[in-house]
Write a structure and sequence with these properties.
The chain is α+β, with helices and mostly antiparallel strands. 41% of the residues lie in helices and 14% in strands. The protein has one domain. The protein has a four-stranded mixed sheet with strand order 2-1-3-4, with helices on one face. Helix 1 links the parallel strand 1 and strand 2. The model has no long low-confidence stretch (mean pLDDT 88).
């Protein structure tokens, strides 16, 4: 099982999680918000620094931690459809990819807003959230 940690109050992040859920037919991903107790424990367990101001999606896959654009590109590899083709962007240097990632992350609340509520999962989907 791969674990995705995300900003639980960010509308863009919540939409991204919904997008992943809808394309995860092999049921490979579990989710937790970065703000949750389990999210904070996983960050500590995997020694992800700067847990208080982390504004990155974090993927824990096979014991390895991916952050920012590396996480996003690793996630698309496991989605249904043509989405794995986007992993071609891994050919670009990470500092270029992360520059664009950081720009979006820095402005995500301004562009997409915040929300204290998110998708209400069905009982089947509820098991995907830690």
């Amino acid at each position: 099982m791969h674990i995705i940690l995300f900003d639980g109050v960010c509308n863009f992040c919540n939409a991204s999680i919904n997008f992943i859920i809808d394309r995860d037919s092999r049921n490979q991903f579990s989710f937790a918000s970065l703000q949750s107790e389990i999210g904070r424990k996983l960050l500590q367990q995997y020694q992800v620094p700067d847990t208080n101001s982390l504004d990155s999606v974090v993927l824990i896959k096979n014991g390895k931690v991916y952050k920012k654009s590396a996480a996003a590109l690793e996630i698309v590899k496991d989605l249904n459809g043509l989405w794995p083709v986007l992993s071609i962007f891994n050919l670009l240097p990470s500092f270029i990819l992360d520059t664009f990632y950081d720009l979006l992350a820095k402005n995500r609340y301004k562009l997409f807003g915040k929300s204290e509520t998110c998708r209400i999962p069905t009982p089947q989907l509820r098991q995907k959230f830690l």
